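Tutorial handout. Part one gives the primary structure; part two gives the three-dimensional structure as tokens.
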Amino acid sequence: MGQESSKIPPSSTQHVFSSETPVRFSQELIDALQSSPETDSTRAKDLELHIQSRVNAELSRLEAEQTKALKELEEQISASPPDSHQPSDQPNKSDSSSATCDTNAKGGKPQDLGRQSVQKEIETLRQRLSQRKLKEDIMNDKGVEKAKEDVVKCLRINDRRPLDCWQEVEVFKKEVGRLEKDFLGRVIQ
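Part two.
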């Protein structure tokens, strides 16, 4: 009873197709298909390699565009006359230029900003960012935390049917959307 194998060993390498309507293929086509070394896995590998090469080519093109744009911006910045670097033989002009630089910085013209005013602006932005505790706000938000726990709980219960958790996912999306609106409201102010 258990001595014979349940699979029938292939008696020949010839493929037999049976259909209700007669289909005729040339013997050359059949031979070419049977002798072809290409399989589904090799086709998939070739396709994957082709996709990877296209992605790499696109990434290198984008990188080249970005470096070109960066070089152009650096050239524009270096070509613009710096206000804080005046010749040393005119000390009175450098003092007055730094004063005009600060007043222009308050006016909002980024081309007239000096090095010190840019550093000052960077420091104020860093202080403002450090005051915001975004991650703690997200972690302390009870609505988002409860919605997240509900989604995880539902997915654990319905591990074979995750699409049954669509309601919990929608509630989670609404809570995250509410949190994003609150954040944008604080940032814009």
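Part three, for discussion. Residues 42 and 48 are 10 Å apart (CA to CA). The radius of gyration is 34 Å.
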